[in-house]
Amino acid sequence: MAVAPQKYAQYIDAESAVVKRPEGPGWDDPFGDGVWRTSWFYSSLLVIKAKDRAAYDKLKRDHDVDEALVVRFLGYFRDRCTDRDEWTLPKNPSQNFSGDQLAPLLYLLASVDGYGSDETKNIAKDILQRLIELDNRHGALSGSPQGQIRDNQRYAIDIACRMYDIDYLKGFRRDVCKSEFSAALALNNLLAQLPWQELATQDAYSVFNALALVSEACIKWSKDDKDVDSWRKNYRVHADKGWGPAFRIVSGRSFNASDIEAYATAYISRSQDNDIIMAQRPAKYLSGDFKPDPDSGPNRWLVLDYVVLKSLQLLWQ
C-alpha cells in the first residue's frame, strides 16, 4: 500500500498552533523549543505569502498551512504564556524561556508587521508591550541565566518596537544597545574563524538564531541599509566554511535555487538529530552528516528547511 505523503500540518498542535517535534519512536517532549521552531516556521510562511504567492498557495494546498495558524499561535502565546513576572513556553512548563526562543520570535513579530493582517499585528503589538513591561520589572524573560535580557537583545527588541510605533530605547541608551548588538554579531564572525571546528561551532544554535535578527533588521530597513549590510557580512565566513545554505543566503554569497528546492522533499530520522530544522546544525553540515535526503522510509520525518530557506531567499534577493 502506498504511504500518504507527509505534510507540515502533521506537526501543528490543534489548540495552540505550536509547531511540534515529531511524535514517534525515539522522540520525546514534542513541545520542546516550541516558540523557537514555531517562530521560524511562521515568520517564513508570512514572507513567502508576501513575496511569492504561488509558492504560498502551493504550501497551503499541499501542507494545510496558512496565515490563520499564525493568528492562532500568537493569540495563544499572548494569552497563556506572557505572565507579568515570567514568560513560558506553550504546553511545556519544564523548559525556561530563553534568548534563543526570543530571537526568532522577534523575527516573527517583524514579519507580522511587514506582511501580516491587521488582526495579527494587533496581537503582535500586545506581545511587544508585555515584553517591555517584563524587561522594566525584571530585566529577564525567565529565572534561568539564559533568560536574562542583554543589551544586544534589547536593540533587537527595539527594532521590532519601532515597527509598531512603540517607544522603548532612546538616545544614548539606544546607541549603547546598538553597539552591543553589532559587537555580538562581530563576535560570531571571530569565533567562526577559529581553526578548531568544535570550538567554532560551539554556540551554533545561537549563531543560527542571529540570522533571524539580521533578517528582522532587513524587514525594517531593507538589505541596502548600511548597518544591515555590515551585519549580514559577518556571516560570509560561515558561508565560506560551509555552515549551510541559510548562511550563504543571508550573508549574500551565491547559492543555487535548486539546492533550496531539494529540501522540499527532505527527511530526517531521530538518530540524525533531535529536531526537524536541519539548518540549525552547522557542525553536521561541516562533517557531511547533513544533506537533503529524499528517503521517506519508516520513522523518517519531513524537515521544515524548505520553508525557512525559501523565505530567506525571497527576503534577501
Report on the structure:
The chain is mostly helical and about 325 residues long. The protein has a single domain, classed as Glycosyltransferase, CATH 1.50.10. It contains 15 helices and 4 strands. Strand 1 and strand 2 form a beta hairpin. Helix 3 runs parallel beside helix 5, helix 4 runs parallel beside helix 6 and helix 6 crosses helix 7. It is globular.
Distance between the termini: 42 Å
CATH fold description: Glycosyltransferase
Largest sheet: number of strands, sense, barrel closure? 2 strands, antiparallel
* SSE ordering: HHHEEHHHHHHHHHHEHEH
How many distinct helices?
15
Order of strands, main sheet, comes to 1-2
Helix and strand content put the structural class at mainly alpha
Main features:
two-stranded antiparallel ribbon, two-stranded antiparallel sheet, 15 helices, mainly alpha, 317 residues, Glycosyltransferase
